[in-house]
Amino acid sequence: MPELPEVETIRRQLAPHVEGRTLARVEILDARWTVARPPEDVVDAVEGRRVERLGRRGKYFIFELTDDVYLLVHLRMTGNLLLDPAPDTPYQRVIFTLDDGQVLRFCDPRRFGTGELALGPDGLAAFFDGKLGVEPLSDDFDGRALRAMAKNRRAPVKAFLLDQRHVAGVGNIYADEALHRAGIHPLRPAGQLTLTQCAALADAVKLVLAAGIDAGGSTIDDFRHPDGVSGAFQNDFLVHLRRGEPCHTCGTTVIKLVAAGRGTYVCESCQPRPRVRRRP
DNA sequence: CGCCCTGTTGGGGA
DNA sequence: ATCCCCAACAGGGC
Fold this sequence. Notes:
It contains 7 helices and 10 strands. It is of the alpha+beta class. Strands 1-6-7-5 form a 4-stranded antiparallel β-sheet. It has a 4-stranded antiparallel β-sheet with strand order 2-3-4-8. A two-stranded antiparallel sheet has the order 9-10. Helix 1 (about 5-20) packs across helix 7 (about 195-215). The chain binds a DNA duplex through helix 6.
């Protein structure tokens, strides 16, 4: 379940172990992992370089290597970065052997995850440019910014939220949580939101993401075990909406619909359905 | 047992 | 600007 809070949690757990370490050996077992270039080019570029910092942008890990070489790792739906897991851990796609003997393994049953290369600060900026919008936890993201971005957009607000070009890092689950908390129906056209609603939604996004990170941060060593992450983020605060269950705010039965091509859970009592405006 | 549907993401084509 | 399909695979329902 790698949404932003999960990526950030893994990053925090991993950083102390990989920062300052050199990528002594890199083995890319799945050629499709490196989308734009041949795996050997990526290996050549990163092998032997030191990890100066492990950063994050949206749902991307940024391995900041020496000489401004950047390895950008995305977990997509089922990817995971595991430090020193059991050697027979299944679905290994990439193996990073560090100079201190630790082994970082990228595992991904579905093989959607990616690792891409960016060279130089300009290359890094170019990679994210036009692809990722504002960081939701930064001060640049607030109701006013959201209102400005959403202006004249007719797409459903959930589709708008999931579009990483606007806000970087909101995924399907947290989008539902935030919309519910803000009392906004996922199918409401984004441009129709008032400034007050945009402020409530921005606050809700920040709150659910921060809560997710807090929940992840309270667990230890999940990054060493394949199934650690899956159950690590359940907590009392984030009650994920599920069809057929009562809304935890008002008790109304939660329904499921499709928005932005994704399964979407909504309490139509807390989140009133927008009026269907007929075309003239 | 097999078939069909769903899914935590994002890119590309219509 | 939007929408739909696809990538590859596991798991659940029927």
